[in-house]
From TrEMBL:
Pfam families from the UniProt entry: GGDEF
Chain segments annotated as transmembrane: 207-227
Record's protein name: diguanylate cyclase
Catalysis performed (reactions): 2 GTP = 3',3'-c-di-GMP + 2 diphosphate
Keywords: Membrane, Transmembrane, Transmembrane helix
Length: 419
């Protein structure tokens, strides 16, 4: 951006103060030049050219034989239909000394080949653009190009329609510097040191267009880059977001897993005391739970110590797992089974009266009796049953169920007692 600003300023300053483009016609320029006089039109004027390194000298004896007597320098730019575009030049200057009769008027003619109007075999079909200048005694004359006009005598002679009678110098085939008029017969000496067209390498309008193009181009490139950058940032953010959400998911899973581990017994996979507490808390938070019926069943495997002692702890563990699975299988999904400790389990049956809990305990007990156990063992269990009383905290009910279990043990085990 800074580069572009500096370049813009530099080009504008250069265009204004420099960037000169000059097209010169002189002895030194090496451009082909010849003198032409009115003898072509059966006139009597005679022009002679003398070349000096610093000037082209025309000696013209102007005689009034032809209607418009003349002598002229002729610089040919092109002999075919492809001329030179001089429309980008701003001014014409010439350095001339003029001796002779009359007011020392010179005429500059620029012949422009215009397709549709000009032909190669008719020299006069090329548009004549002209300007008349009176040469001062000394010095350089400079005139703006825009004072050139399509010569009225030429437009009249060629019957050029008004619309095409404009000055046009975009395809110039020759430049003339001519002298002569009816009242200036005699000897004329014109010393042409230089005839120059002045312009800029790049016109102001063209430069402004170029600068505008550069700025628009830069803006487009900059926008493109910014868009690409934003897109890649968006892609990065999306990728990062996707990654983060995956990590988050994994962390959530891990947290859930850890929470599950904290709430379950690692051996039997049923709830531990903490898990049971959390489950009951959740249950109690329910608005309708305060009036709900709860039954508590305490279960304890009979003579489990003997299993361990006789068959080893491995078998004991297998029995514990199979026992928990059997109880879990025998209760409803809404009931909660927890390992209370060792070979003791607690069942919380929601929406259950003591009598129903009793029936459930009996069913479970009988199921255990008929089950096939690891190592061909026979496993029985004792049950203590109670129901939560209105206004009672669950700890009291558990204690009562524990008491009932104690009774069941005392009464010979493999039985259910209700408190
Ligand atoms: N294999 C195994 N044994 C356990 C585990 N937890 C507790 N025990 C054992 O369970 C036995 C419990 O024995 P006791 O409290 O005497 O009860 P019991 O032998 O079942 O006798 P009663 O309950 O009176 O019928 C102990 O030998 C403990 O070591 C366990 O996770 N795995």
């Amino acid at each position: 951006m800074i580069g572009l600003i500096v370049l813009t300023a530099a080009l504008l300053i250069w265009q204004h103060f420099g960037m000169e483009r000059i097209m010169e016609f002189s002895a030194a320029s090496g451009r082909p030049v010849e003198l032409v006089d009115d003898r072509l039109q059966q006139g009597g004027s005679v022009a002679r050219l003398t070349r000096r390194p610093d000037a082209l000298i025309m000696d013209c004896d102007l005689r009034l034989k032809f209607e418009w007597p003349y002598c002229r320098f002729l610089f040919i730019l092109s002999k075919n239909e492809f001329g030179v575009d001089l429309s980008e030049f701003d001014s014409i200057s010439f350095d001339i000394s003029y001796d002779g009769p009359g007011d020392h008027t010179v005429r500059i003619f620029l012949r422009n080949f215009e397709p549709g109007m000009s032909t190669l075999d008719d020299y006069m079909s090329q548009k004549v653009n002209e300007v008349h200048v009176i040469v001062p005694a000394k010095g350089i004359v400079k005139i703006p190009v825009k004072v050139l006009r399509a010569a009225p005598w030429w437009t009249d002679m060629r019957h050029v329609p008004f619309l095409h009678a404009d000055m046009r110098i975009d395809n110039v085939t020759s430049v003339d510097l001519s002298i002569g008029a009816r009242d200036t017969a005699g000897h004329h000496r014109v010393e042409l040191r230089s005839l120059k067209f002045h312009g800029k390498l790049i016109s102001q309008n063209r430069l402004l267009l170029i600068l505008m193009g550069m700025w628009i181009g830069c803006a487009v490139v900059w926008l493109g880059l910014a868009l690409r950058h934003s897109r890649s940032q968006l892609t990065n953010s999306t990728t990062r977001l996707a990654l983060l959400s995956k990590v988050n998911e994994a962390l959530e899973l891990e947290t859930r897993e850890l929470a599950g581990q904290a709430y379950s017994d690692p051996l039997t996979q049923v709830l531990n005391r903490e898990g049971l507490r959390a489950a009951l808390m959740e249950r109690w938070q329910h608005p309708d739970s305060s009036h709900e019926l709860f039954a508590v069943i305490f279960v304890d495997i009979d003579h489990f110590k003997k299993v361990n002692d006789t068959h080893g702890h491995g078998v004991g563990d297998d029995v514990l797992c199979a026992f928990a699975a059997a109880i879990q299988h025998g209760i409803r999904a809404s009931d909660k089974l927890a390992r209370w400790g060792g070979e003791e389990f607690l069942i919380i049956c929601s929406g259950t009266k003591a009598s129903d809990a009793h029936l459930l305990a009996e069913k479970l007990r009988e199921g255990l009796n008929s089950q096939i156990w690891p190592g061909g063992l026979r496993i029985t269990a004792s049950f203590g049953v109670t129901a939560l009383q209105p206004g009672e905290v669950i700890g009291e009910a558990i204690k009562r169920a524990d008491g009932a279990l104690y009774q069941a043990k005392s009464n010979g085990r493999n039985c259910v007692r209700v408190a």
